[in-house]
Amino acid sequence: MLDTKPLSPGFGREASNVDVAAPLSEAAFDELARTFFGAQLLVLRDQRLTPQQFLAFARRFGPPEPHVIDQFHHPEESNILILSNRRKNGQPIGLADAGTYFHTDYSYLQVPARATMLYSVEVPKAGGNTLFANQYAAYDDLSDAMKRRIAPLIGVHHYGNRKVADEMSRVAASPLTDEQKAKMPLITHPLVRPHPVTGRKALYAVSGSSYGIVGMPDDEAVALLDELAAHATQPKYVLSYRYRVGDVVIWDNASLLHSATLTDPDDPRTLWRITIKEPSTKLDALQVLAPTFVARSM
After folding, report:
1. In this structure, are residues 133 and 256 in contact, taking their beta carbons and an 8 Å threshold?
2. DSSP string spanning the chain?
3. Which of 29, 89, 148, 253 could form a disulfide with 24 if both were Cys (CB 3.0 to 4.6 A apart)?
4. Neighbour count for residue 13 (Cβ, 10 Å)
5. How many angstroms separate the Cα of 188 from the Cα of each of 177, 185, 209?
């Protein structure tokens, strides 16, 4: 039986009796998955993992997708992105600032992300929290008129942060090489997206990678996106999470925005990250959980 407690009144739970390194039975994993999709953010405490064990656990949720910033892939497992401000022989060993603005992982890809997992290897003395914003609640609180207005709208996405044009700013998206940029075409997703597992509607990636809206003048589109992003990231929707060593933190990209926070470059911090894409098959085992969640939300 999974033993959990809430991280906040709105969303998020933590569990202290799960060993990610050990194989989970189908029944145990189904319970964990239901808990995750119900909570949107799940923290599994006190883990000790090899890269291979971390990846094996992640694959239970769906297919991992290596990050486009391939110079910081883990040397043993390319599906793991190293997030770190440490340096070796004068060179960074990982990505130091991983998205210090509200965004949704892989919203710039045609097949979006289901979940992102971080394994906390080393924590700084201060800072380094991740902020999570509940996009179910943000959508639910919109006026009926705004819901009708945005229901048919399709956002235009590409890698980056629309609020910051300077690629070298510490609050910009991590810069890409020309070769990496060539792999990132324009992508479209609905502004309001029914969750592929729970069926609940949420605002989707209205901050970060959304640069326009199909069929709408640029200035009008950006104004609407900015209005939605300001609404969706109000403090009442946000949970600030502080990591402990050994945490595995899993979040739902279809129902949350998230933002890293800046840390002191001289205060060491290291995490491993795996991002899971939505499975291509509609018969995926987790998708059959949807009726359970729909029934609970009615």
Report:
1. yes
2. ---EEESSSSS-EEESS--TTSPPPHHHHHHHHHHHHHHSEEEE-S----HHHHHHHHHTTS-B---S-GGGB-SS-TTPEEEE--EETTEESSBSS---S-B-TTTTSSS-EEEEEEEEEE--SS---EEEEEHHHHHHTS-HHHHHHHTT-EEEE-SS-TT---TTSTTSPPP--HHHHTT---EEEESEEE-TTT--EEE-S-SSSEEEETTS-HHHHHHHHHHHHHHHT-GGGEEEE---TT-EEEEETTTEEEEE----TTS--EEEEEEEEPPS-TT-TTGGGHHHHHHHH-
3. 29
4. 18
5. 23, 10, 11
The amino acid that residue 250 corresponds to is: I
143-155 per-position pLDDT tens digit: 999 999 999 999 9
**Token pair of 192, please?**
């309001």
Of the pLDDT bands very low, low, confident and very high (cuts 50, 70, 90), residue 293 is: very low
Query: Do the beta carbons of residue 159 and residue 176 sit within 8 Å?
Result: yes
Q: Cα separation of 263 and 252, whole Å?
A: 24
Q: Residue 269 in contact with residue 85, Cβ under 8 Å?
A: yes
The angle at the Cα of 261, spanning 255 to 267, to the nearest 5 degrees, equals 140
What mean pLDDT is reported for the chain? 88
Q: Which residue has the tokens 């590409």?
A: 158
Torsion of CA 141, 195, 58, 156, to 10 degrees: -90
List, as own/partner pairs, every contact residues 20-26 make where C-beta atoms lie below 8 angstroms and the sequence separation is at least 24, other chains included: 20/44, 20/47, 20/49, 20/53, 20/54, 20/57, 20/248, 21/47, 21/48, 21/49, 21/50, 21/53, 24/57, 24/60
Domains assigned to the chain: 4-297 (3.60.130.10)
CB count in 10 Å sphere of residue 57: 26
pLDDT band at 90 (very low <50, low <70, confident <90, very high): confident
